[in-house]
Design a protein that fits this description.
Layout: E1 5-14, H1 19-26, H2 29-39, E2 48-53, E3 56-65, E4 67-68, E5 71-79, H3 80-83, E6 84-85, E7 88-89, H4 91-99, H5 104-107, E8 110-113, E9 116-125, E10 128-129, H6 134-144, E11 164-170, H7 179-185, E12 192-194, E13 203-205, H8 209-218, H9 225-243, E14 246-247, H10 251-260, E15 265-270, H11 280-291, E16 294-298, E17 301-310, H12 321-346, H13 352-359, H14 371-389, H15 397-411, H16 418-422, H17 429-437, H18 442-449, H19 465-484, H20 498-511, H21 520-526, H22 534-548, H23 554-566, H24 574-590, H25 594-607, H26 625-639, H27 645-653, H28 656-665, H29 673-691
Antiparallel strand pairs: 1-3, 1-11, 2-3, 4-10, 5-9, 6-7, 8-9, 12-13, 14-16, 15-17, 16-17
EC number: 6.1.1.14
Family: Belongs to the class-II aminoacyl-tRNA synthetase family.
InterPro entries: Gly-tRNA-synth_bsu, Gly-tRNA-synth_heterodimer
Length: 699
């Protein structure tokens, strides 16, 4: 019997789910349902769609198999020489059949396999109705969902993000028992759903999938989140045109608003213009975090209008007046609180002598002291960086050091503020406002604002040199300090965001062309911390560098690192390492047959791999003109100066012709030890030149 196909719909009806947890897990639900199907031997490769609304998760398959097809499985047993005695099955032979649930006398048969006669059996399994499997599939699927936190309710054995009310499974006319799911989650299993809560709390019967979708449509539930998003964006665009404003769509906020509404409607409201005196970031953050409103702008300046997305299924604009009044009242209270916090903060001193005692009472990390201790460590790093990179600055080393130290004394003052306590994401930003209020220089204010830059992959970098060094000081201390107490990221776990800090260090150094050496400079800075294996931090940063550089070929990156290691493992300078990688990649991309080209130099590397040190070759021991020609080519290369690393790489690979002639004309392992060593010394010199770029063996 073949497998027929029928549409399948599964709805998990729950209490309203928290948006962020729902969004984080929703991206995995189709894969997890497929895994549950696979675990139950259901071969489904059709179109599976997932939907969500605030109180429901829905899976819809257009062509789900009605049966698992009948199967015929062959089993091969032991050879007859092992399974038979006196023309009778011995215990070994009998066990082969009994394990398969067969009668040995009735099932006995043999076949030839690998030129041996062995016991043989064929098992036939009948077709299985997938409707009978859906209970177990759905139970496994629900258990696999991980929303971070889950709820327990009543005496229900299982936990879920929110209590489950009903499981609606519609599979043509197939009766589907969900007894295991009902017992596990204490829910009903009706072919029914609920419409928008503002319209009715009752169940509405849905005998078919068509009835289900029509019921939701008539009941003001837009099931597809993409359609809800389209509706919101279209209405925002209309409001922009009506009121002459611009809305900066925050993708995260938009996604969250879509998740908390079943029937969204965008509305335009106003707040008192007096609140525009607040820093823009305070106003927009308050609207976003507390109320999930979109801020509006006019000519790039914050406007006293906002957009709220209502979930009320109303039809006429005047019906929303009450909703707008309520939202405007709540926002006024929120912004009034923000004004109070901000005014209080402006009255507080930012000077180090006032800030330091408070920071000393805030622990940074066990084993690493307080935030005051962190600032003092950052200042030591800042002095080192100011001295090292003074030639890159447009001001003297003394002025740069003074500004860096002052910036670090001010950098964490806003952590003590009421606004940052309410909105932690505004740390740094608020520090710049407070510094401006206390008449600090504009470049220091900018540095305070950008001290945590970049805050994410691809996010903006510090815009000034002072900002860059301040951010480097803070991030390098976090890396060194946390590694010194064993807080090293493992696997996907990185609770202290050290990968992000490391990416920031690397991106800043590359952008400003700051020659930071992951061996020498880390050793110098590591003296300010408890002793630990600095190679762990170096390898961590090198691994992140391959990510930052978007390495195409892992072998190419490895060859560059191996070249550094072979030359003593000291020259792990970030910018130079990047230049080597890009120059080598550019060269190989231009070569038609890079493998053939590289193979010649791999031969050189393999011949000399066991040589630790060699003297210069003696030209008097050359026996063939090819030796002299190769040596002269090497000397010319060594004497040359190259404006760009790419030019040197071209010159190195130009040695291919004299090398091929050398290998053709002479025997490396000459019977005469002196000649043999002389030839190997010549190849060793060439290999060392290549190692200054990469270890060719790794390509």
């Amino acid at each position: 019997m073949g497998a027929y196909l029928n549409p399948l719909l599964i709805e998990v009806l729950v209490e309203e789910m928290p948006a962020k947890a729902l969004l984080a897990e929703f991206k995995h639900i189709l894969d997890k349902f497929h895994q549950a199907l696979q675990n139950h031997q259901v071969d489904f490769k059709g179109d599976l769609r997932g939907y969500y609304a605030p109180t429901r998760l829905v899976l819809h398959a257009l062509d789900f198999p009605t049966h698992i097809p009948a199967k015929q499985v062959e089993h091969f047993g032991p050879p007859l020489s092992v399974a038979m005695e006196d023309n009778q099955l011995n215990p070994i032979g009998q066990k082969f059949y009994t394990k398969l649930g067969l009668d040995p006398l009735q099932a006995f048969s043999t076949v030839l396999k690998n030129q041996k006669e062995v016991l043989h059996a064929i098992l036939h399994s009948p077709p299985i109705s997938t409707a009978t499997l859906l209970d177990g599939i759905l139970l496994e699927f629900l258990r696999s969902l991980d929303f971070g936190k889950s709820m327990a309710w009543g005496s229900v054995p299982e936990r879920f993000i929110r209590p489950i009310h009903n499981l609606c499974v519609i599979f043509a006319d197939e009766p589907v028992s969900l007894e295991a799911c009902q017992q596990a989650y204490g829910c009903t299993a009706r072919r029914a759903t609920k419409i928008h809560a503002a319209k009715s709390f009752a169940y509405h019967e849905t005998p078919s999938i068509e009835d289900y979708f029509q019921t939701l449509q008539k009941g003001f539930v837009i099931l597809d989140p993409n359609k809800r998003q389209e509706k919101i964006l279209h209405e925002i665009k209309t409001l922009e045109q009506e009121h002459g404003v611009q809305v900066q769509i925050d993708p995260e906020l938009l996604e969250e608003v879509v998740a908390i509404t079943a029937y969204p409607t965008a509305l335009y409201g106003l707040f008192d213009r007096a609140f525009l005196d607040l820093p823009t970031e305070v106003t927009t953050t308050s609207m976003k975090e507390h109320q999930r409103y979109f801020a509006t702008f006019k000519e790039g300046v914050l406007n006293n209008g906002f957009i709220v997305v209502s979930n009320a299924p109303l039809q006429h604009p005047q019906d929303f007046a009450t909703i707008l009044v309520g939202n405007q009242k709540v926002l006024r209270a929120r912004l009034s609180d923000a004004v109070f916090f901000y005014q209080n903060d402006l009255e507080q001193s930012m000077e180090w002598e006032n800030v330091a005692p408070a920071l000393d009472k805030i622990a940074f990390m066990q084993g690493l002291g307080s935030l005051k201790d962190k600032v003092e460590r950052e200042q030591k790093i800042a002095l080192f960086l100011a001295q090292k990179y003074a030639p890159h600055a447009q001001e003297s080393q003394e002025i740069l050091q003074a500004k860096l130290l002052e910036s670090l004394c001010l950098a964490k003052a806003d952590l003590l503020s009421e606004v940052v306590y309410e909105f932690p994401e505004l740390q740094g930003v608020m520090g710049s406002y407070y510094a401006k209020h206390h008449h600090k220089s504009p470049d220091i204010c900018t540095a305070l604002k950008e001290q945590y830059y970049p805050i994410a992959e691809g996010a903006p970098l510090p815009s000034t040199f002072l900002s860059a060094l301040l951010a480097l000081s803070i991030k390098l201390d976090s890396l060194l300090a946390l590694f010194s107490v064993g807080k090293i990221p493992t696997g996907s776990k990185d609770p202290f965001a050290l990968r992000r800090a490391c990416n920031g260090v690397l991106r800043i150094c590359l952008h400003y062309n700051l020659p930071f050496n992951l061996q020498a400079d880390l050793q110098m800075l590591g003296t300010h911390y408890a002793p630990f294996d600095l190679s762990l931090l170096r390898e961590f940063m090198l691994e992140r560098l391959s990510h930052v550089l978007s390495v195409k070929s892992p072998n190419l990156y490895k060859s560059v690192l191996k070249g550094i290691e072979a030359l003593g493992g000291q020259d792990y300078e970030i910018c130079q390492l990047a230049r080597k990688l890009y120059a080598l990649q550019d060269f190989l991309d231009q070569v038609e047959d890079s493998r053939q080209l590289v193979s010649v130099f791999k031969r050189v590397a393999n011949i000399t791999q066991d040589i630790q040190q060699a003297s210069n070759p003696d030209p008097h021991l050359f026996q063939d003109t090819s030796e002299q020609g190769l040596y002269e080519a090497y000397l010319n290369l060594q004497k040359s100066t190259f404006a760009h690393l790419g030019d040197k790489i071209h010159a190195l690979f130009a040695l291919k012709t004299p090398l091929e002639l050398f290998f053709e004309k002479v025997l490396i392992n000459d019977p005469n030890p002196q000649i043999q060593n002389n030839r190997k010394s010549l190849l060793f010199l060439i290999c060392r030149e290549f190692l200054s770029v990469a270890d060719i063996k790794e390509l």
